[in-house]
């Protein structure tokens, strides 16, 4: 009798979604060994199935990483969509539109902090990002991928009268760059910020973005206290939050 290719080799695999199990195992392996340090065979071994079973779902490691990146995009999209549902304020108002931009930014940062290994794969050099017309469903489980959510949120500022169409043009570039940069610095522990400090830092990023687009100061809110994010060794006796000169 021929053995099923998905049959477990070590007794650890007990459910039907082998593809999902391989993705989850790969996240753990990336965390332990880095993206370059594991193989598809190792992922199969972690799950407890034969390499042949893994190759039925992924042609090679590159295909596995591409799937892991798209899976992460879908998870990030869900986190951003969920954050938007929790924003208070009258629908279509300028106050709410500004808050929605902050909500998607916070969801982005917290996803990166919570899933650092998958975040690394999503934006690393190992995977090709598909054209908009080719974005597969797993990257947009509710119909929008993360970038489209950002675009729509920025467009909402225009519809609400918070910014002019001219000021909004191309705003997704600095908005995405700033939030992604903040998330990357936090994940890399260059800026090892706690939850409250992350919210504070994001508030500074958001304030700069909104004021740069010409938002009224009352929509932006008061300036927050600065976050001490300087990674250089602190001179003895110099308190946190004190600016240091190069």
Primary descriptors:
246 residues; mainly alpha; Tetracycline Repressor, domain 2; 57% helix; globular
Structural notes for this entry:
- Helix 5 (94-114) runs parallel beside helix 9 (172-187).
- The model is unreliable at 1-11 and 241-246 (pLDDT under 50).
- The chain is globular and about 60 Å long.
- It has helices at 18-33, 40-47, 51-57, 61-85, 94-114, 116-122, 146-159, 165-168, 172-187, 195-212, 217-220.
- It folds into two domains: 18-57, Arc Repressor Mutant, subunit A (Orthogonal Bundle), CATH 1.10.10; 69-220, Tetracycline Repressor, domain 2.
- With 246 residues, the chain is mainly α.
Q: Would you tell me which CATH topology of the largest domain applies?
A: Tetracycline Repressor, domain 2
CATH architecture of the largest domain: Orthogonal Bundle
Low-confidence segments, given as residue ranges, are 1-11, 241-246
Sketch the major β-sheet: none
Relevant CATH superfamily of the largest domain: Tetracycline Repressor, domain 2
Structural class: mainly alpha
User: Could you tell me the radius of gyration in angstroms?
Assistant: 21 Å
**What helical percentage do the residues reach?**
55-70%
What distance lies between the first and last C-alpha atoms, to the nearest angstrom?
Answer: 73 Å
Average residue-wise pLDDT: 85
General shape: globular
Tally of DSSP helical segments = 11
- The CATH class designation of the largest domain is Mainly Alpha
